[in-house]
Amino acid sequence: MTRPRMPLPQLAAAVSMTVAFSLAILKLWGGWLTHTMTLWSLMVDSALDLLASGMNYYFIRKSYHPPNATFPYGYGKAQSVAALSQAYIIAFSSLVLGYQSVLQVIAPRPLNRLDWGMAILAISWTATCGLMIFLRWVAHKTGSLAVRADSFHYETDLLTNLGGIISLGLVRYLGWRISDGIFGLVIVGYMLFGALRIARQSIEDLLDRTLSPEENQRIMEIIHNFHPAIRNPHDFRSRRSGHRIFIEFHIEVDRSYTFEEAHELAEDLIDRIREEFPNAELTVHVDPEGATR
To answer: Taking the complete model, does pTM exceed 0.85, yes or no?
Structure first.
């Protein structure tokens, strides 16, 4: 008996955990070797990445559990909870980095063995870049909000690592010790903006925001063009829950159709919509043409 394949978002979370753990160990060694606050702070950031990716893995795995009597609509919202948690972690990381950056601007600390530090950050940047590209691909392919949030989290890591390399280079070759703090504050602003964007989208999903206008328009086009006996689609509603979407609407069917024929027509329409929206759960209420209630 073959084991079911791991869903892509869950695989992405597992890969993120592995990379985050490896980078945290690398930066821990670098911090011990160079005694630089830049590497110590980035090591803490990688530890938070590991925590965030671990939470992502748990919630994404939970979101793929089948519906049951207690949760008849499934666990798809767990991905939105994971993304919202990511937003809080990013915001917390930015505040810690902001505090350290302000201290570095006010009283720049001496940095040692900068060549080693720059090499470690270059390795970290390369690994993070590869991970971010993979996460973006998974987010685009699956529409997972949790993976998209994780992708942004590592995008900020790219900037912090790049900022660390540039700032260490400026200190190493030009003696500009204040540059470490200035780069940190710029990155803090970017991180807070991204955390706010992720939090807003997560909350909208938790509050059952409708699908995008383009998706809703496409679904209505399918309904209108499916069969001449289907008329006046109305009371249309849609929402997203993790990797699944829920669609509800009413249609009126020509009165010459029997109940069984109208039912079969509705089932055929559901199958047609699922050809373009395979993760859709549809509820279609069939009315006789001209019904007032």
So the answer is: no
